[in-house]
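I have a small job for you when you get a moment. Can you supply me with one protein entry, sequence and fold together? It will help me judge whether the discrete encoding reads sensibly. Write everything out right here, beneath this request:
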Amino acid sequence: MMALVGSYDTAVLVSGDGDLAYAVDAVSYRGVRVEVVSLRSMTSDSLINVADRYIDLEMIKDDIQKTSRSNYAYRPLSGLSLMEEHEDR
């Protein structure tokens, strides 16, 4: 994050680790916009406080979750038997 600070204008940090608050604060001071994306229950208050924007994954879960495809037919891997033979050796 720090080494490339002159190469980007926005950083998206997918973490809730409060140990990163110092780095976020440092790059923000150098003009970088920092957005933190994480689950609120696993995110440090200090990290949220230094970020320019905080996005709680729980609040956008419906928009980003994988949807099932009803027309998708399951196909087993064709190379599975080759893998089993390799494991037997």
About this structure: The chain has a mean pLDDT of 86. The helical segments are 21-29, 45-50, 61-64, 80-88.
